[in-house]
Amino acid sequence: MRKGKKLREKAERWVPNPNDPSGDDKKLLVEFLLKHCDGYKNAISIGRVLQEVRFKDEYTRELLQHRIIVPLREENDLFIGTSNKGIFLINDADDAYKTISFYTNRIRAEKKHLRNLKKIAKKNELFKSFNIDPKRANKIKKYIYLDESGVPSLKNMKTDPYFIVGALVLDGTDLRRQLARKLAFIKDLIGKPKDYELKSTRLNEKQYADILRELSIIDYEFAAICFIKDKLTGHGFSYPKSFYKYAYDFLINDVFDDIGEVNLYFDEYGGVNTKFQAEFF
After folding, report:
1. Per-residue pLDDT tens for 207-241?
2. Where are the beta strands (DSSP E) in 125-216?
3. Cβ within 8 Å of residue 40, ≥6 positions away
4. Where in the chain are the domains?
5. Cα–Cα distance between 76 and 156 in angstroms, integer?
6. DSSP string spanning 4-41?
7. pLDDT digits (tens, 9 = 90+) for 169-188
8. Contact 102, 84 (CB under 8 A)
9. 3-state DSSP assignment of residue 126
């Protein structure tokens, strides 16, 4: 049996809890979705749903979301997908992927607002004399993976004109394990051994697209800074160690927050026992 058909049959058999005061309207919405909004390609706006479904109660957009759609998403036998086009009944992998991508992008946008608020609070010292209850503090362990492209030196600028530093940020051990499993799956997907080091320059266009699609559902954050060497004028950039330390100081001040435990992982120049590691710390 096709997965999509199986999901549809579960939605067709779904019945509300008899004690649910909104049960009848939930059933009406499910029946409407089955008939008109089967899959992402048939998504319909909430405004149109309110016009066409003869609910027993009256709803605004917000009330329909709160009382009907959101509770239905907590059911185990069906899921109402969402996208910029509207809502729909999820039936297959493409439907699920569209909704996961929609949620992921929205969450990332909210996290961007959160980071900006933290910067403003830090810049204006809003929490300078503010005591946070340690029991209420968000003590999530962060894992930050740091890497660079190019060499932190102003020599040979014609052949090496840029120095780029980047950081990948994961919140919590569970997310770190999830990423590890996803990377293992990706290597198997593109036919590479487990110890293969993924580099974009070694991938063809299809492999690159497959990897980006798989990683898009992982809730990570990243930041990167590119230094254009012929635009750098400070005397300190002439010294590789100083250049390297400045680059990562500049980056990490942008991705660090002050709460929680942080584990740093460096590649190449910042690795264990390199001449740059001591400079950084």
Report:
1. 888 888 888 878 788 889 999 999 998 888 999 98
2. 142-149, 162-171
3. 81, 83, 85, 88, 94, 95, 98, 99
4. 3-93, 142-280
5. 60
6. HHHHHHHHHH----TT-TTHHHHHHHHHHHHHH-BSGG
7. 888 788 888 888 999 999 99
8. yes
9. coil
